[in-house]
Each structure stands twice: as C-alpha cells, then as structure tokens.
Recover the amino acids of this structure.
C-alpha cells in the first residue's frame, strides 16, 4: 500500500505546528487529518482509524497520555508517536508504558519526524502482509505464536498484544537463543535507519514480559544478558 493511501492523524493544539506537519506530510504523500484537543483526537482516531497518530502530550480537555491510554485500552493498534516538549525522563517513559510506540521531543527536525513516520508505516505494512504459506506455529514454554492469523496464545488463551509487542515477540521467536543488542532491535524491529532512544526498547521488552512471563520479575523466556542485550530462550 503506498504512502498516498496512508492516513496520519495529528492531535495538536498549536495551529502553526499543525500547518507545518500537515504540509510536510502531504508533500511526502500521506493524507493528514488534525484534531485540536485530546477529546476530539480520541473521537477522530476511533472514527477514522488512521494508520498512524502524531499525539501531542500537552493538550486541552484530555492530555496525550490519557488519549493514548484510552486508545490502547479500546484495541487501537496503529502506531502512536508522542510529541513532547517535556524533558523529564518519567514523562517520556510514561508514554511508552501506556502503549505509545515512540516519542519525539520538540523542537524536532522535520527530517527526523518523517523518518520515524516512514519507519512505522513500513513496519505496519510488513505486518499487514499475509504470512508466507506454511509458516509454522512458533512455540516456547506455554507460548504459541500463530503467524497466519497474527495471534499469540498462552496456555491456549489469546494474549492482547500491541502490534509492536507482537512484532518484537515474532522476531525473538524466529531467532531463539541469539543475543540482540538494543541497537540491533531498534534497527530490525523498529525499522529505524538510525538509532532512537534505546529506552524505547527496554520499555517494550518490559511490557512484553508482563504478558508472556509467569513471573515477569524472574523471566524464563525473554532474558537479559547484562552488558550485551536480550535473548529469547528457545524450546527445550
């Protein structure tokens, strides 16, 4: 599916920023929509089901954190990139914990923002493609990943994973017993041609552990190799 068919929702209350983003996204071949506050952005995301959301943190009516939380709780699965002027570490991590795929700190370069948009659109396009014929079910412990229907089960019960969490688990299960650095995961799973903030990887791993591990604080499947990276333990 080409860029011209991809819809980007901008949830931002500063008209000048909306104008700049809309102009550059349209020039890049995307179809931009905009909402001036959190409540309107939430309603528009549910109604229009955009391919990606650019979500400001500081918004009237509902802030970006609450919009992100409600969208993910409602099953909205498209990438969410948060726009923030805040420098506090806790604010950035909070957005990731609530289900945002990444964040970009203002002021940002348009080149950087478009690169992040392209990477996330490309990732979802790959995820939307049909699984190769005959791709087997992947299993480890009590976890089974079914590529054909993009479903993960634990002890036979379906897990509710975000697209990012599914992509990360799929990658790990296709490469068991291999250690990957955070930089490698950023490149191979996030599809970033440059390395973003590596805390994004750590938060995604932590969220995934909470869903697949019996004891997330003492994981048996998704392991940390201190000073090296992460490893997924294959079937034994």
């Amino acid at each position: 599916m080409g860029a011209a068919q991809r819809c980007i929702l901008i949830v931002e209350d500063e008209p000048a920023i909306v104008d700049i983003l809309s102009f550059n996204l349209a020039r890049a071949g995307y179809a931009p929509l905009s909402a001036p506050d959190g409540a309107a952005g939430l309603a528009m995301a549910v109604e229009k089901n955009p391919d990606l959301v650019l979500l400001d943190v500081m918004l009237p009516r509902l802030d970006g954190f609450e919009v992100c939380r409600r969208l993910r709780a409602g099953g909205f699965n498209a990438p969410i990139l948060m726009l923030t002027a805040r420098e506090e570490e806790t604010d950035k991590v909070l957005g990731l914990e609530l289900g945002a795929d990444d964040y970009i700190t203002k002021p940002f370069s348009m080149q950087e923002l478009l690169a992040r948009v392209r990477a996330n659109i490309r990732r979802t396009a790959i995820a939307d493609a049909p699984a190769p014929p005959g791709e087997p079910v992947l299993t480890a412990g009590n976890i089974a990943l079914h590529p054909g229907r993009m479903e993960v089960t634990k002890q036979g019960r379906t897990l509710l994973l975000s697209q990012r969490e599914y992509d990360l688990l799929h990658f790990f299960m296709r490469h068991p017993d291999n250690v990957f650095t955070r930089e490698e995961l950023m490149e191979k799973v996030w599809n970033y041609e440059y390395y973003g903030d590596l805390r994004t990887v750590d938060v995604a791993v932590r969220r995934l552990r909470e869903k697949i591990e019996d004891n997330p604080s003492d994981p048996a499947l998704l392991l940390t190799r201190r000073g090296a990276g992460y490893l997924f333990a294959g079937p034994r």
